[in-house]
Amino acid sequence: MDIRLRGLVDDDLDRLFTWEQDPAAVALAAFTRSDPSDRAAFDEHYARIRSDPSCTVLAVEHAGTFVATVGSFTMDGEREVTYWVDPDRWGRGIASAALTAFLEVERERPLVARVAAHNVGSATVLRRAGFVEVGRETSYAPGVGADVEEQVFRLAG
């Protein structure tokens, strides 16, 4: 797949904000902001992570078009990966290709990934990239306003 990773730029934020408001995407991701339509919270979040040297956030281009983000951050002493794909482009292998490319950039291991247990697509992406499920937890998910079972994956190595 013809994908390229690059730095996230200001011009990407309007599209990303739109994607992160998609009701189906929020329901699948679950662990999002409690109000996906709150632009100030969105802008604050991205300003914070883009200025934090311990966070990596990259744009993903497919055939020259911005289609996703992929990144990593440290939480509770563990390095975690995250990604978000334009909902109009789900099911085309973009998340798998982006994560595979990102794993060449993010060399720290082990890596952790968390996904709502009902998000079968994201769990499949992680397994294809070599992540193994190591547990399940139930946590409050602000995006859906309820407790959600979460699968925890790890990539050793």
Automatic annotation (TrEMBL):
Record keywords, A-Z: Transferase
InterPro entries: Acyl_CoA_acyltransferase (IPR016181), GNAT_dom (IPR000182)
Domain N-acetyltransferase: 3-155
Domain of life (superkingdom): Bacteria
Molecular functions per Gene Ontology: acyltransferase activity, transferring groups other than amino-acyl groups
PANTHER family: ACETYLTRANSFERASE-RELATED (PTHR43328), N-ACETYLTRANSFERASE DOMAIN-CONTAINING PROTEIN (PTHR43328:SF1)
Name the UniProt record assigns to this protein: GNAT family N-acetyltransferase
Native source species: Cellulosimicrobium composti
